Amino acid sequence: MSSHTVIAGSYICVTMPSLPLYGRRPMSPSKTATLNLRIDPRIKEAVRIAALREHRSIANLIEVLIRKHCDANGISIPEQHALFGETDDE
Question: Which one, of 25, 1, 3, 23, lies nearest residue 12 by Cα?
Fold first, then answer.
């Protein structure tokens, strides 16, 4: 599973493959979403270092952090097939 991260100036553009949720049906790795955001260069550097230390891509680290935040705050993450109107047999 790969992800792509482009860092330019104070922008981080992350394209993340969808990861399976714990014990749930795996999501298609071919459907990804792009997230563009402005971020303080110091935060960007901290994210880069954190990703290196955990042997992750920046995209994967950000996805893991978002999943942990949602889990800790009772925010459900919908199954990918529900977002794209797919049925279970697709």
Answer: 3
Return the axis-axis angle of helices 41-53 and 58-72, rounded to nearest 10°: 90
Residues 6+ apart with CB under 8 A from 41: 10
Which tens digit of pLDDT belongs to each residue from 3-22?
Answer: 555 555 666 666 555 555 55
Instruction: Return the amino acid letter for 19.
Output: L
Sorted by where each begins, the domain ranges of the chain are: 4-83
* pLDDT tens per residue across span 51-90: 999 999 999 999 999 999 999 999 998 887 777 776 655 5
Q: Where does the chain have alpha helices with state H? A: 41-53, 58-72, 80-83
Strand order in the sheet with 4-8: 4-8, 11-17, 32-38
